[in-house]
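Lab notebook, design round three. We kept the backbone fixed and only want residue identities now. Task for the bench partner: fill in a sequence for the structure below.
Input structure tokens:
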């Protein structure tokens, strides 16, 4: 009999909690959303995700590859190039990252206004 494991993100030893730790990172969401449309090379990702350091980009790509969200393909070119693409699992998760992006871009004026009111009231 095949049973699906039960995960509880609120339990400190649950593997699903590590998922939230990893996904709650802005760079991870930016990488997923950038790869949502097309596979990209490392340098293209670095240019599109303004402000990410090469070291952090490399770390996040390795983490996403290990977790099964992206695949890394070495292209037979001169010089050799590496391309990153979403897996099916990554495509599903990238849809959520895209929704965060849309929400942030369409609601930031309200957040900024709330911050301004809060700061004025705190004076």
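Proposed sequence:
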């Amino acid at each position: 009999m095949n049973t699906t494991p039960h995960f509880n993100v609120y339990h400190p030893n649950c593997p699903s909690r590590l998922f939230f730790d990893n996904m709650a990172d802005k760079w991870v969401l930016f990488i997923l959303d950038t790869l949502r449309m097309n596979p990209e090379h490392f340098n293209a990702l670095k240019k599109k995700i303004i402000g990410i350091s090469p070291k952090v980009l490399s770390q996040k790509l390795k983490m996403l590859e290990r977790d099964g969200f992206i695949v890394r393909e070495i292209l037979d070119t001169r010089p050799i190039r590496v391309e990153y693409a979403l897996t099916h699992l990554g495509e599903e998760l990238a849809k959520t990252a895209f929704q965060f992006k849309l929400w942030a871009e369409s609601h930031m004026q309200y957040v900024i206004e709330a911050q301004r009111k809060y700061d004025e009231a705190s004076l």
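Keep this in mind before ordering anything: The chain has a mean pLDDT of 91.
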